[in-house]
Amino acid sequence: MLSGIKIVSFTHFLQGPSATQILADLGADVVKVEPPQGAFERGWSGPDAYVEGVSVFFLLGNRNVRSMAVDLKNEDGKAVLRRLIDDADVLVESFRPGVMDRLGFGYEELRETNPGLVYCSLSGYGSDGPYKDRPGQDVLIQSLSGLASTTGPASVPPTPVGASLVDQHGAVLGALGILAALHGRARTGEGTRVESNLLNAALDLQIEPLSYYLNGFRGQRSASGISSPFYKAPYGVFATADGHLTISLTSTDALSKVLEEPWFRGIDPGAEYAMREEINARIAELLAGKTTRYWTERFAEFRIWHAPVNNYDDVVADPQVRNNETFLSFDHPSAGPVQVLAHPIRYGGKRPGIRRLPPALGEHTGEVLAELGYPAEEIARLLEGGAVRG
């Protein structure tokens, strides 16, 4: 769907590469500009997760892109990049605010030679303001945004979510902004600057609880650690005899039937939030006596919203997950067989596949230069002089 759209990517970590991968999955030609030593994610991976020396962190966010290694401090390298950008539809960068301007690749400068350029900046906090120079990293933003303060029971410290969901949501918002700007350019012929940042992404994830707060509701974390600060009981995770079961948005009258406990019938629906700790305690006592399978079958029989709490073994084997073709497998020339998450959306009943494997550093430098019209002898000179790396 994005065939013919050329994107130059100055991105690293997760937010930026994931945003450009979304667009590359859709057919855009994404050229990832890396320093001669390689992007950060080539040499880092969460729990030191490397497959035959290749970073899983790099493999999960850089498919369907081309790699071009350029020395940003070399004037010949900068000249190559200006030529590349002048031919591009989109530039995406995830440096700290001001870095691209100091390098000579700020939006105002580039729009003079490419007025149709969509220029997307992905940052931690935004391009201005008192926090613009702070390090923008997922768990820091979860804390600053209030997200961690609403997670976990009241008896333990605030708890970050166990995934980089802010990074990923920031990536999706960045891709959304780019697509909107491209649509606008198709009507006006003019490019624009798009900005997405992790702080806004974290707050956007909290659209519901923050709206409650802004309108006078002050939720508190549950003492039992089961319910959300913002929902009446029952809502949350309960231990069974051999695992855990989540119950969501059902009446205490329905609970009285499925649990065969008359006590629930006497609760006024208007008191289900105020009485959530007592309700939680009674549910917990009853569910602990039988297995997750028993309760799953019984709750299904009574059509009560529920789900078992799966670990990743369960998730990978889940029949709906498998049906949705959630995972993408490929053979990497260095890492060998690799599995990652596929593009999350279907188009015409199909998910986009993989056209290009996550590239080696500078794998496409010569190819991109040739497409820009550089003759072979000039490409050789640039490689020999260190302006670019192949």
Automatic annotation (TrEMBL):
It holds the Pfam family CoA_transf_3. The keyword Transferase applies. Keywords: Transferase. GO terms for molecular function: CoA-transferase activity. The keyword Transferase applies. InterPro entries: CoA-transferase_III_domain, CoA-Trfase_fam_III, CoA-Trfase_III_dom3_sf, CoA-Trfase_III_dom_1_sf. It comes from the Bacteria. This is Crotonobetainyl-CoA:carnitine CoA-transferase CaiB-like acyl-CoA transferase.
